[in-house]
Specification:
The chain is of the alpha/beta class. Helices cover 48% and strands 15% of the residues. It folds into three domains: 107 residues, 2-Layer Sandwich (Phosphorylase Kinase, domain 1), CATH 3.30.200; 222 residues, Aminoglycoside 3'-phosphotransferase, Chain: A, domain 2, CATH 3.90.1200; 186 residues, Rossmann fold (3-Layer(aba) Sandwich), CATH 3.40.50. The relative contact order is 0.09.
Length: 535
């Protein structure tokens, strides 16, 4: 791959991997690639060279453009990280030899930075348990001061128009379409497309209101954990968006949503909520809460898209490609969570008559949302010391299916779900929940801790139920002991869920093709959440 500057990229990389190429002769060079740049960590300095690429939303395809964006990167990043950005260095070619700021023709440009201490990056400090709410308060104050220091600019404010915001959303969806079936499932892609369209159709007034109130600023644009460092005299927030103004001229809610999303992605839900609260209170910006999940969804989708792109680049090593595929899937799952459930912790219950497909639905949802599944069949056999594959078809409400053991099973099921919520934020319960008292037990427990509960009832005809149970018995590979012999008695004892609020209740026709029924369910949950201002 040749650069328009006249030098082969591989030759340039070989040069920058040599310690002798640098004025300070570092002992070791570490090369890191992004989808748009080659970064070289050279001792106490870092050199960043932009790739000769045009990705549509980013165009570094000529030497002149790379110079322009290197200079813009330094100027813009000095706003929030003044100490780190040294300047733009020229890479020269003379008599076939390359040099940094030497003699000859300029063939490339590099942003030169001071290396920030690795142990003070926010992500590393979180991993070591060193981040506290005081750190988040300091970070919030720095950002609020930055946002408030900006004078109103008409050209920035224009990017707060709903149609301008939608350009970014549509571009992400269009770009990511090629990854359906690879890093994002068809059901998730269609549900996320639906979410964004429905939000714009019904909530565009929120964008206009926030634009009129002056919340559209020249922001950082790429505010995530790896771009925050607590090691300098002041917090350093580096590597802002320089290559496209429409990604930087954004709602401050979009800016802070990126960091909040990244905290969620890494399991720090409490810190995420605290950080948002600090920003909202300091900015006196209560309407931010009405759009924050929309922007979290957007940010997670962007990260999924970026990781997907990286997974296809020829020069990226195979192990990094595999990691990018995995990371893309995680971010797309998180985006789907925001769309279907919002940010609050949630319990999803798949329930219904035996053989109605609740376990199948639970498994598919668990995969789509990266959520744990707690199944009553497994819990029951565990608390009775029964082998998972050991058949216990002793009859209706007999053996390990007595009323007493069933009550213990549901109590344990709900107890485990509360513990799992703390770890994963979303948990799926797979159980018939055929009695009103068990459903109320869960709802009361959830109310104590502020959880939302979604009840997804699986529906199928009697003929389908019978056929599935007979087929399952023949296979003999199910942990469930339910048989066709008890179907009628089970169905007659099922208590209709009249106590569940309609906003939290959904029915799933499991006789439809699995992908179709899942997509319809996700769309129903999304539409309900938006219509009821849940998120």
């Amino acid at each position: 791959m040749s650069n328009p500057g006249g030098i082969d990229r591989s030759e340039l990389i070989d040069f920058l991997l040599l310690p002798s190429s640098y004025p300070h002769s570092p002992e070791e060079i570490i090369h890191i690639q992004t989808h748009a740049s080659d970064v070289f960590i050279a001792g106490h300095c870092v050199y960043k060279v932009k790739k000769s690429v045009n990705l549509g939303f980013l165009d570094f395809s000529t030497l002149e453009k790379r110079k322009h964006f290197c200079e813009a990167e330094v100027e813009l990043n000095r706003r929030l990280c003044a100490d780190a950005y040294i300047g733009v260095w020229e890479i020269k070619l003379r008599d076939g030899s390359l040099s940094i700021n030497g003699e000859g023709e300029t063939v490339e440009y590099a942003v030169k930075m001071r290396r920030l201490p690795e142990d003070k990056f926010m992500k590393n400090m979180l991993r070591e348990g060193e981040i506290t709410e005081k750190h988040l308060s300091r970070l919030a104050r720095k950002l609020v001061k930055f946002y408030n220091s900006q004078k109103p600019r008409p050209e920035v404010r224009e990017y707060g128009r709903p149609e301008k915001i939608k350009v970014n959303i549509d571009e992400n969806l269009d770009t990511s379409g090629q990854f359906v079936g690879k890093t994002i499932t068809p059901a998730a892609f269609e549900a996320l497309r639906f979410y964004n369209q429905r939000f714009f159709d019904t909530k565009s007034n929120l964008f206009s209101e926030r634009r009129d109130k002056g919340f559209i600023k020249d922001c950082h644009g790429d505010l995530h954990l790896e771009h925050v460092n607590f090691g300098s005299r002041d917090i350093c927030i580096y590597d802002c968006i320089e290559f496209n103004e429409r990604f930087r001229y954004i709602d401050i809610a979009s800016d802070v949503a990126f960091l909040a999303m990244d905290l969620d992605h890494n399991g720090y839900y409490g810190f995420s909520n605290y950080f948002i609260s600090e920003i909202v209170e300091s900015m006196k910006d209560e309407t931010a809460r009405l759009v924050i999940d929309f922007y979290k969804n957007y940010r997670a989708f962007v990260r999924g898209k970026v990781e997907s792109i990286k997974s296809t680049e020829e020069e990226v090593p195979e192990d990094e490609k595999a990691r990018s595929v995995r990371m893309a899937g995680e971010y797309f799952s998180l985006a789907l969570r925001y769309a279907a459930l919002g940010s609050r912790p949630a319990v999803i219950v798949t329930f219904g008559i035996i053989g109605s497909g609740k376990s199948t639905l639970a498994g598919k949802l668990g995969e789509e949302l990266s959520a744990s599944v707690v199944a009553s069949d497994y819990v029951r056999k565990e608390i009775t010391a029964t082998g998972t594959n050991e058949r216990k078809d002793e009859g209706y409400e007999k053996g390990i299916y007595t009323e007493e053991i069933t009550e213990k099973t549901y109590a344990e099921l709900i107890s485990r779900s509360m513990k799992e919520i703390e770890r994963k934020h979303v948990v799926i319960l797979d159980a018939s929940f055929s009695k009103r008292r068990w459903r109320k037990m869960l709802m009361n427990k959830a109310a104590e801790t502020g959880l939302r509960v979604f009840f997804l009832r699986t529906i199928a005809s009697k003929e389908a139920l019978r056929e599935r149970l007979i087929e399952r018995e023949k296979r003999g590979d199910s942990v469930s002991d339910a048989t066709v012999d008890i179907l009628e008695r089970f169905a007659s004892g099922f208590e209709e869920p009249e106590e569940i609020e309609k906003t939290n209740y959904f029915e799933v026709d499991t006789e439809r093709p699995p992908g179709e029924s899942l997509t319809l369910l996700l769309k129903d949950m999304i539409a309900g959440g938006i219509a009821n201002d849940e998120y």
